[in-house]
Amino acid sequence: MTEQRSPVHILRASFVTEESVYGVILVSGMIVLAGGHGDSSWTTFWTVLVTVLVFWAAHLYAGTVAHHGMDDHRTVGLREAFRISFRRSLGLLVSALIPSFILLLGATRAVPDSLALWSALWAGVIVLAVLGFIAFRRRGASMLMQVLGSLATAGFGLAMMLLKAFVH
To answer: For the segment 102-135, what is each residue's pLDDT rounded down to a tens digit?
Structure first.
């Protein structure tokens, strides 16, 4: 009997992954690089969007190839390997949505470029903190460990912000 999973479970299982953490750090790094060169939010938005899509496609391809064939003494077909990889890599795309949306606000001049860039970086820190908290909570860690895990994960985003401060 196949276990049915709710959309919330699937989203949580797809979003709280190492790919999600990589996605946020990737977006933050792109903001640091593009913003450090004085690029506008519009240029930064497109740079981030294209880079995330290329990384996601490469990750999806690599995951499909890696899962295709024999796994735990059974054959995994190409479609199943693709589904596994797609679900696993979805976090990379989803985690980039919030910072990218904030960059889009700057690109459309709803907010100034500088505010958009820094807000997107802060959003990345918050997303990382949430990812860390959920990951530790899901594993049954104590509240102290959940908070420490959240802070440690958010630390990667803060490191990117420090890099931006030094690059700019």
So the answer is: 999 999 999 998 899 999 999 999 999 999 999 8
Phi, psi of 5, rounded to the nearest 5 degrees: -120, 140
- CA dihedral (74, 75, 78, 80) positive or negative: negative
| Residue 58 CB contacts under 8 Å (≥ 6 apart), including other chains | none
CA gap 149, 137 in Å, rounded:
9
The two structure tokens encoding residue 45: 């938005």
Is the confidence at residue 148, as pLDDT, over 90? yes
CA–CA separation, 20 and 39 (whole Å): 25
Mean pLDDT of 21-33: 90
- Spatial separation of the C-alpha atoms in residues 67 and 38, rounded to whole Å: 41
Q: Other C-beta atoms within 10 Å of 73: how many? A: 5
So what's the pLDDT on residue 33? Answer: 85
Q: Strands 69-71 and 74-76, how do they pair?
A: antiparallel
Q: List, in sequence order, every residue forming a beta bridge with 74; answer none if it has no partner.
A: 71
